[in-house]
Amino acid sequence: MVEIDILTEFKHPNIISLLEVYIYDSKLWMFLELCDGGALDSIMTTLEKPLSERQIRFVAREVLAGLKFLHENLIIHRDMKAGNILLTSANEVKLADFGVSAFLANEKQKRDTFIGSPYWMAPEVIACEALKESPYNWKADVWSFGITLIELAQMRPPYNDINPTRVLLKITKSDPPTLAKPRFWSTEFSDLLARCLQKDPNKRAECSELLSDPFVANLSEKDRECIKLLMCELKADVIDTVEESDSVELEDEEEHAEENILILPDSTKIEVPMEVVDEDEENYDNETKARGELLDLGRATENQPFEVAPQKPDESLLQDLAQDLSDQLIGEVITSETRHPSVPSCLFEVMRDISEEVGVGQTIPEEDRLPPQPIVPKPPASEPKLSRRASAHKSLTRTRRFVVDGKVITTTTKHIIPVNAEVLKQREEDLNSRKAELRAFRMLGKQEARQTRELTAKAVQQKEQLETKLATEFLALKRGYEQKLEVVSRNYRAQLERLEKEYETDSKRIRSTTVKEGQTFKEQLRKELDKCSRAERKMAMRELNSDNSLFSGGSTSLSASLTSLNSLHSNSSQKSVISQQLLSFREQQGVRFTSHMKQLTLAFQERLYHLREEELVEKHTIRMNFEQEKWKMEQRHMHMRHQLSRSKLQDFFSIKRQKLAGLLELELYELRQTITREREKLNNIHSIERKNQAKYVKNMQKKNMTDFHRHCRLDPSLTASRLKERLREDKHRPKSVYSSIHSSSNQLGDMCKRSSCRPFEEATRKQLGDETYEFEQKLQRQQELLEYSIVVRLKELEQSHSDKRNDLTDLETERLRELDEKHEYELRSYIESFTHTQTLLRAQFQEELGQVSSQPSLRADPSRTKRPISSRYSVCPSSNSSNFASSGLSIPSTPMNPSPPRFHRDK
């Protein structure tokens, strides 16, 4: 979807156009602009050659223009390579494949995703494989652009001979890559590469700066002709010509095309020698047979006359020549290290040819005369040439002819192609191996991405489940807290209602008791009226009746009744004894009633105050317990969240370690496969070389001894010791004596006759033995060198992965430490907030207690506030009357203990 968004929103001449997007057959299809020229890497593969500098210059300018547009819009391409640069029929250069591109929110934002093609990755992108500490921005495209320029110049990116899983380490550890043969390219091109391939992103140039570089500056539309030429060459008719190629041509072609050949990863270049066939022995047998026939013919015609020349050559010159040749013979036999035919065989061939040349028209001593040689077929050359099999390679000449602006242009490319089925099979296996390695590397990346997605989804699900569980626990705790508060409030209201009812009941009982006392006192007064006169009795009855009317209302207070009674007596002219007694009784009764009611009210207010205080204490205890439980729950929840985060982080690094282990296993498997192939190849080479060496030793020994024996048969008195003595004496004789070699061969024969074959045989055997020993030593050194390189590569691979594991472990430890520190900081912050909350709750509680104490209706008697809350308050009238005393007022009170609370959570 990112690619669709980019191609839909951003349009540029150097960016491929998106024409339509639709869904067909449950698949998303993108209808893109047609670029019939194809990608540059496929063009180079088809033409079998890299681009020219002029073509690279134009392509670089166009690509930089497209990248500059992308970077100005905060887009990172992240997959810049020749395979994503397309050519159109209008000779335009287009950037394609934005599937892994990324948007940036602002210029300061960076990305830390490990993505892209290995050979073109920037060092900062590779660093994000295990560590996310060095994110990258759009300058990563500049590095990939520099690698792409090298790819266009050499057909392959740098380090293409290295395994793709190990090239990442090579890029980060090595210096920035350069051109393989910079002398073939301009200085401006190398300078542009140096500006692009800076390992430090801060020192790397921007695309806008690179557009002003001398290499790409001052280009016009006329320079587009080079792209037109490339397109015409791509579409031209091809004529292929296959020819046999010899070894010299093969070596020359390999030297010229060395950088274009994809070498096996992590391998050493080993040349396989061709096995020597058995034709040498046949040639040698034919040659020996011909020489034997020649000698037989010489003996048969021994008595035939010869024409003697009038001039006789100088014998001393011939002796010196023979000594020099013998000296070279002995020295070469002892010190020769080559596999070419040894000097003895060459020497005797020269001697034989000289003998043939001087055999006619020369004077030969009569004792040494031989009959003239008949015309016989010339024997084959005695020098054994190693005949090779039919060439395993052929030369492919590919000619392209095309017309540009009316001119016929012809281009020719020559390549060495293998004909041997084994070579073709090996190359195909190497290509398939490389593809399998890249595929395995991509599969590891896809597996890591899939596991990361699954881990992220699992972590999100676990977090949601945990938050749901924690929310449920908190709601249950809060619901329990609210229920406890509701219970306390309900109990408080119930106790308050009961207290009010008790207060009303006691008030009514005091009133009823007071009324009963008044009625009893009046009954006593009525009984005393019998002793009084009628007038007094009548007045007393009127006063008593008047008092009854005053106390008839149960709801009227006693003080009001006394006031009415006093006013009544003050209006009367006469005060009887009864009225005085009644007034005195009413006054005393009013005092008692007021005292009782005051005591009852004070007891009620005190109980009400303690009831309110108990409610506040209990609610405060519940709040404090709730905050304590809430703190414990939050602490447990924070710990669970922390453990979930730790588990997620550990799982993430576990995926990284699994990928690293898979990468190590993959690299070890590929390296072992490469080592096995190298060992097999080296063993095959050694087997062929040993076989060739054995044939070489056998042929050379037989040929040299046969030649020497033939000459010894001509003169058995020839001794090697005498030859060596003369050679030592005349070692520094001038070489000009070779000029007289054509004068005569008879004197040379005289010298050879004085030698013996045994020393020569021993010298030849010793020389061949030394060569064989040195040959085996060389093979052993090659084997040891290969084993050493194998050990070095294995140690290097193990060390690199050990470093990666250590870096990953260090990063995991650091991230876990940061996570633990964050958790500890959150705990400290919450502890501080919890302490502050407790302080606020205590202050609020004290404030509420102060408000309760300051209310007049709830202010208690200071002398009674010291009494325990759980005691029972009794209010008794202080009357001497037994009835009133027996009717003591008692107000029951519910015991209230603020600590511990009535409802407490089990810990």
UniProtKB/TrEMBL annotation:
Any one GO MF term held by the record is: ATP binding
- Please list where the region (Disordered) is annotated: 363-392, 850-907
Q: Which UniProt keywords are listed?
A: Coiled coil, Kinase, Phosphoprotein, Serine/threonine-protein kinase, Transferase
Known Pfam families for this protein?
Answer: Pkinase, PKK
- Matches recorded under SUPFAM superfamilies: Protein kinase-like (PK-like)
Ranges of biased composition (kind: Low complexity): 870-891
Domain Protein kinase span(s) in chain numbering: 1-216
Question: Which intervals carry biased composition (Pro residues)?
Answer: 371-382
Coiled coil residues, start to end: 449-516
Q: What is this protein's name?
A: STE20-like serine/threonine-protein kinase
State the species of origin: Clonorchis sinensis (Chinese liver fluke)
